Every structure is written in C-alpha cells, then in structure tokens.
Amino acid sequence: MTLHFNRACKTQPIRAAFSGPHQPREQHVLSKIELDIQGLMSSLRSTPSIRNQGIWDPSQATLAGESYILVDDSCVLCIQDIRIFQPFRSRVFRGEYITFQYLQDTGNYFHLYDGQVQQVRSGSVSLTAAQSSITEIRQLRPAASIKPSRAVAIHVSRDHLIETFGLRPDLWREEYRNAFIGGGAPSLSIGMPLTPEMWITIDAVLDCDFDEPIRNNYLKAKAVELLALTVVQFNGFDRPGGIVSLGSADRDQRLINIASLIYRREINNPPSIDELSRRVGLNRNKLTTGFRSSFGITPAEYSRRLRLDWAARRLSEGLDVRQVAIEAGYDSVAAFGRAFRQRYGRVPTTPPQQL
Which domains does the chain have, with CATH numbers? Predict the structure, then answer.
C-alpha cells in the first residue's frame, strides 16, 4: 500500500529559535516532520485503519507508535500512544479540517500559529482552526523513548463539526467566531482543561485491547462520544459559567477532580505525587492544597484510603488476603496488613464461608 499523505517523508534536522511571552529565546536542533490531514483522509478512505506504520515519521527515528481510524468520511481519530526518541518540530497542514488535541500525559510543548507561541500542557484539550500550525517538543519527558505518551487527536471537517456534531461558534465572541468560520488568517487556537468525563473516554481509547473488528467499532464510538463531550464544553466556552469566565481556582479544581479520578482508576498502581502533578499539569503545592481543601487529606492519604476501602470490599467478597494485597498495589502481605490495621483497627481477613 502506498501512503501518499505525508508531505515530508524524510525527517530533517532544523535549528529552531523563537521567543514567546513566557519563553526566552533559545536555539535547539530539532528533527522536522510533517502531516497533511487531507491526504491522510484520502488514504484512510481506502484503508480505514492504519497502525504503527510511521505516518508522521516513516524512518521512526524521531517517534513511533501512532495509529489512525477513519470515524466517518469527514473525521479521523489519531491515537498517539507514541514513543519519542528526540526533540522535534512538527507541521500539520489542515485545510478545512479542525483539530482537537487531547493530552493526558505528554509533558509540555509549544504550539506556533500566526506568529504566536502558546505553551500546551498535559491535562488539556485544544481546538485549532488553522491552515497549518507548528508544534515543538524541545525537551523530552522522562522515559519518553520507553514509556508511550497518552494523547489523542481528532481531525474533523469544519462543516461536519457544525452540522453533525453541533458546534456553535455563533455563541463565541466575534473575533473567535470570525477566525473559526473564516477558514483562513487569522487562525484560532483555544484550550481548556480536560473534564473528568473526557479523561475517562480517553482512557477507554488508549487502553482498548479488543480484537478486530470489535476494536475498530468500539474506537469509532468512543471518538463520537469524545467529540460530543468536547463540543458541549466549547459551546459554553465563552458564555457565563464557561471556561473563559472561570477563575484560576475553578480551573485548578477541575484538575483536582481529574487527579482524584486517576487515583480511583489506578488503584493497583497509583502514581506518585510528582508524577500525578506532571500528568494533570498542576504543581505539587497546588495539588496538595487542593486535595486538603476538597477531601481534607493529602493526595497520598486519599490514594491510600481508596486502596484500603477497595481491599476491604474485596475481602468481604471472599477473596484471598494475598490476592487482595497484590491487587491493591502492595508489595507484601505484611505491608498491606500494617496499613489495613492502621485504617480499620484489625487485621485483614476473609470472612468464613457460610455452610
């Protein structure tokens, strides 16, 4: 099969130098990769699912692991559980397509469009309406070449987004509306924190391990669900109570809610506070203060209570103590027993079976 949608099939080293409002002027040697969304859609119409074929980077010297699914004739889901081997600059050519970029755990990077520089953080979703834009990742997150990033993108045509999915740019302020509907310069890029519902749906996409054809159908459905959740948020973006009107404390609270969701979903392998801080894009002090304000305890204690309460329920269902300790993320039965006794005042036991 010939893949003809990548304008620059050769990864090229370039030297990037720019400054933004919060970024000093620096120079970095970056590899260069490019993607043409219209060409990608053309290829997917004949091959609706493409996995691990180096679409961005055919040599896979810069990054590897992305996959693409045609949701319908005007929409594509990009699963970006990629490993990154070196800093890079990527350019996306969109034409009439709009990009929603969802970042769970990617580290921070810089987004360039119309001469502007925007820092993008983990724990966010952004809408980009631009003929083309540039993204730079100058510094790799820890273990980027081993541990895949957790991100998803959806590219959807402007008309399809409005007519089928119900986006209402007419509710936005004039400059946003004109930039979105105009289709040319000036371009538009809007970002907001992920909602807990979005986070759950992204987890479902990234963690899907179904066999085909169930996988393909499931991911299409999740892409539609994610778009629906996103459109609801962006329709209210510029209205009273929307994200624009939220203060920093309210935005931080959204991230606290997502952090608590991560702990609930990752009971057997909870992230450290530093890792959780990086994943949701909230510094350690704000994270700890936010948990104390919302739950009356630290993040570590919140995680510990979740695990032990879950373990108590599992024991009441008749599971073996050793198995429950492992599932709750404890290295040993002794460590689990100490934590359990401290929480409940008794040793963990399985209730005797009724005859």
Answer: 12-245 (2.60.120.10), 247-355 (1.10.10.60)
